[in-house]
Design a protein that fits this description.
CATH architecture: 3-Layer(aba) Sandwich
Strand content: 15-25%
CATH superfamily: Cytidine Deaminase, domain 2
Strand order of the largest sheet: 2-1-3-4-5
Shape: globular
Order of helices and strands: HEEHHEHEHEH
Radius of gyration: 15 Å
Largest sheet: 5 strands, mixed
Number of domains: 1
Structural class: alpha/beta
Helix content: 40-55%
CATH topology: Cytidine Deaminase, domain 2
Distance between the termini: 47 Å
Number of strands: 5
Length: 153
């Protein structure tokens, strides 16, 4: 685990925030080098799958000309959702490092990471730069609610 990669994911999350997107960032790393970057763009692209992890995995696969990413790690600012966990497992990524924990119970990270019915297992480590990652999300939603409240007046 290398904090510099999580810091890059946080930088990408802040980029998403500036665009009015839920601020989540992700990077895929292989052999100590970033091979894919992504941040949420669901609203701008009007695409349900435009999550940070999906975009980072897509870029990594394109760079390597392979849908398989064995030996790779993914750093993401928020615990992955079930869709993104599916992509991580399908791409054969070895390790997930995430920052903030999903607080609304919509994550199945640990259950999917080691599910007996799947042929690939992934190592999961959470809480990396947890406060910083959670802070970006919290400030986004606080600012969004304040704007919505002001617009209602």
């Amino acid at each position: 685990m290398d904090e510099k990669f999580m810091r890059e994911a946080v930088r990408l999350a802040r980029k998403a925030k500036k665009k009015g997107e839920v601020p989540i960032g992700a990077v895929v790393v292989l052999n100590g080098k970033i091979i894919g970057r992504g941040y949420n763009l669901r609203t701008k692209l009007q695409m349900a799958t435009a999550h940070a992890e999906m975009r980072a995995i897509d870029r990594a696969c394109r760079k390597l000309h392979s849908w398989r990413l064995p030996g790779a790690e993914i750093y993401v600012t928020l615990e992955p959702c079930p869709m993104c966990m599916g992509a991580i497992l399908n791409a054969r990524i070895d390790r997930i490092f995430f920052g903030a924990y999903e607080q609304k119970g919509r994550s199945l990270t640990n259950e999917l990471a080691n599910a007996n019915l799947l042929n690939h297992k992934v190592e999961v480590t959470g809480g990396i730069l947890k406060e910083e990652c959670a802070g970006v999300l919290t400030s986004f939603f606080t600012e969004m609610r304040a704007r919505e409240k002001a617009e209602k007046k």
